[in-house]
Here is the input.
Amino acid sequence: MTSKTYDVAGMTCEHCVSAVTSEVSKIQGVSRVDVRLTEGTVTVTGDGIADETVRLAVEEAGYAVVGGH
Ligand SMILES: [Cu+2]
Here is the structure.
């Protein structure tokens, strides 16, 4: 199991946190999603999760992954 943190642009309130958490949680293999509003990040923990899959889920929620770690 690995954890990876992504920067997410556009989150401004708890609704945004819920939307991102909900979409990213749907990804197969994800066991934990931790969105930090003040830092503008989402940390995804699980097995075999591709960066591209996370990026698409964040976009589905209406936000964008920026940069890369
Ligand atoms: Cu919001």
